[in-house]
Amino acid sequence: MELVKSGIKILVPRSPVKQRTAVDGFENGSKNSLDSLEQDKECLTPEAVTEKPVGTVLGRGTERARMGSRPRTQPLVPQLNVPVSPTVVPALTVNGKSTLTFMETLTANGPTNIQTAVTNVTANKRKFDERRDQPFDKRLRFSVRQTESAYRYRDIVVKKQDGYTHILLSTKSSDNNCLTPDVMKEVQSALSTAAADDSKLVVLGAVGSVFCCGLDFIYFIRRLTDDRKRESIKMADAIRTFVQTFIQFKKPIIAAVNGPAVGLGASILPLCDVVWANEKAWFQTPYTTYGQTPDGCSSLTFPRTMGLASANEMLYSGRKLTAQEACAKGLVSQVFWPGTFTQEVMVRIKELSLCNPVVLEESKSLVRSSMVNDLDQANDKECEALKKIWGSAQGMDSMLKYLQKKIDEF
User: How far apart are CA 390 and CA 378, in angstroms?
Assistant: First the structure.
């Protein structure tokens, strides 16, 4: 009372309920808003009113209830995992107004349909597994052949394509795709396989920028130092068998010369049926330079192909022919631009692979039949001459001088 008489005013703070700010659409200090809050609380479901702790994973229905709508505890239409028969369809209605319950409907549908559904799923799965286990003929055969070539061959790559076999020289035991007895045996094996399978023709190419640089003289000289006579006979016999494989091969052989072809790499080209060359390729047979006589039936095929004068110039003096010159002399069938060489060759190979295989073999037989005996005799004579040259001391010295000259040039 003394404070009142003294004129001092006492400020009393308002109730926190009346001081409440506008939250959730309620106005400050409004009794009606509190009443409406109580009414809304009564309308909400217990799941929506109950406060969930932080981090609780809410179901789809509970989350919707928290947003202010009624939770959906079950789907509008009962979900059946079995086929529905026409007799059951009228019993299924929306919003639960069905004359039959879900279990009654399932019973009316019958356990037979359930077993049928399970049986159908199992049968379909079994059919799929059986179909998956069945090999796809062409793709599987191609992949198996390519896998076999990766394990069977070290110095060549063999690709079995649709209608033809692609043999690529990719020597790991020698440089510049040079030929050793092992490399020649692998080529012979690949040709024998192609002759026995469904290939209509064979494509002979090389990996890299060099087609073939002939015999590997470094490999050869290392063995001549041990037993010159025995090793010379072994090398000559390897060449005879290698060349004989080309002579006796009945299917067409297409040579795709991507780079330089020297020595035996150039002399086997007339034994092929078609020779397509990259414009950057060149051809040379410098036999006299390293003290060797001709091989690969070049003593017979070169004069018949390009004439005696041009053949002697290549075999004696080792003249180097460009791709265009070789094409003009008949050693090469056609020359392609380097940038599109592979594409041009593949287009023509695919066209040939569509031909009848019997027609291709018979056509080659008609062209080559009159030359086979002459080629065999030329091959034998050349190999006998190589044995004589390689078995002499002069032949050994000539090869050593040639290699020394090459080393000095590099």
Answer: 18
The tokens for 45 are 């479901």
Predicted structure pTM score = 0.64
Catalytic residue among 215, 271, 321, 386: 215
E strands, 144-299, are 156-160, 164-169, 201-206, 253-257, 261-262, 274-278, 282-284
| Catalytic residue (one of 295, 315, 331, 375) | 295
Q: Answer whether 113's CB lies under 8 Å from 82's CB.
A: yes
Mean pLDDT by runs of 10 across the 410 residues of the chain is 51 49 43 46 45 48 45 46 46 44 46 44 46 43 43 85 93 85 94 94 94 90 81 93 96 96 96 96 92 94 95 94 96 96 95 94 94 95 93 82 69
Tens of pLDDT, residues 333-381:
999 999 999 999 999 999 999 999 999 999 999 999 999 999 999 999 9
Q: Read off the tokens for 293.
A: 């006589």
Helix (H) or strand (E) holding 166: strand 164-169
Element (H, E) at 116: helix 111-133
295 catalytic per annotation? yes
CA distance 146 to 393: 45
Query: Catalytic annotation on 215?
Result: yes
Is 376 designated active site? no
Burial class (CB in 10 A: 0-12, 13-18, 19+), 25: exposed
CA distances from 403 to 127, 220, 410 (A): 66, 12, 11
On whether the CB atoms of residues 303 and 329 are closer than 8 A, the answer is no
Catalytic-role residue among 169, 264, 269, 386:
264
